């Protein structure tokens, strides 16, 4: 075999194997997103009271150490706490502040699941508990994520007025 033939052979093989790895990685990400969506949906259980509505939104997150936390929303006359923040509470109690990935879902009366992005308050809260959470992946669909910083486009805007 000539040296040039060897190079050609390896240049064909390398992209093929990279492509295979990318496909495997994409499948893994898709599976993890789907699992997290299912986990968030599994805690949705609506409870209505005279003063409140609970559990119509569920959230699941993966902390930096790989542990999964879930939460539900609690809307009462005096206050509203989103599902993301009730999931974050036990995480912080465990001494964790960094979130790798987070999702929130709402289910309609037919059981159809909708992925919903964090509200403005939660976006800021997630950033404020840990600056590194600007890199948190916010799941928007089985195969779509955006970084928290993309949902807070002017997060570092401090313009000195001259
Ligand atoms: Zn919120």
Structure in words:
This protein is α+β, with helices and mostly antiparallel strands and 162 residues long. Strand 3 (68-76) and strand 4 (79-81) form a beta hairpin. The chain has helices at 3-42, 83-93, 120-129, 148-151, and strands spanning 47-48, 52-63, 68-76, 79-81, 99-107, 113-116, 137-141, 144-147. The protein has a single domain, classed as Cytidine Deaminase, domain 2, CATH 3.40.140. 40% of the residues lie in helices and 30% in strands. Strands 1, 2, 3, 4, 5, 6, 7 and 8 form an eight-stranded mixed sheet that branches. Mean pLDDT is 88; it is low at 1-15.
Key phrases:
alpha+beta; 4 helices; 8 strands
Bound heterogens, unique: zinc ion
- CATH fold-level assignment: Cytidine Deaminase, domain 2
Oligomer: single chain
| CATH architecture group name | 3-Layer(aba) Sandwich
Count of separate DSSP helical elements: 4
> If you average the pLDDT, what whole number results?
88
Shape: globular
**Helix percentage:** 40-55%
């Amino acid at each position: 075999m000539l040296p040039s033939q060897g190079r050609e052979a390896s240049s064909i093989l390398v992209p093929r194997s990279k492509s295979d790895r990318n496909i495997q990685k994409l499948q893994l990400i898709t599976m993890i997103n789907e699992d997290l969506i299912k986990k968030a949906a599994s805690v949705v259980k609506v409870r209505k009271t005279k003063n409140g509505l609970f559990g119509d939104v569920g959230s699941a997150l993966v902390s930096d150490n790989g542990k999964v936390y879930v939460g539900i929303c609690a809307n009462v006359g005096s206050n509203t706490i989103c599902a993301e923040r009730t999931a974050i509470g036990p995480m912080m109690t465990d001494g964790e502040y960094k979130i790798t990935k987070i999702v929130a879902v709402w289910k309609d009366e037919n059981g159809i699941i909708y992925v919903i992005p964090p509200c403005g308050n939660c976006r800021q809260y997630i950033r404020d508990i840990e600056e590194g959470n600007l890199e948190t992946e916010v799941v928007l669909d089985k195969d779509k994520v955006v970084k928290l910083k993309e949902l807070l486009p002017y997060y570092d805007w401090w313009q000195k007025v001259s």
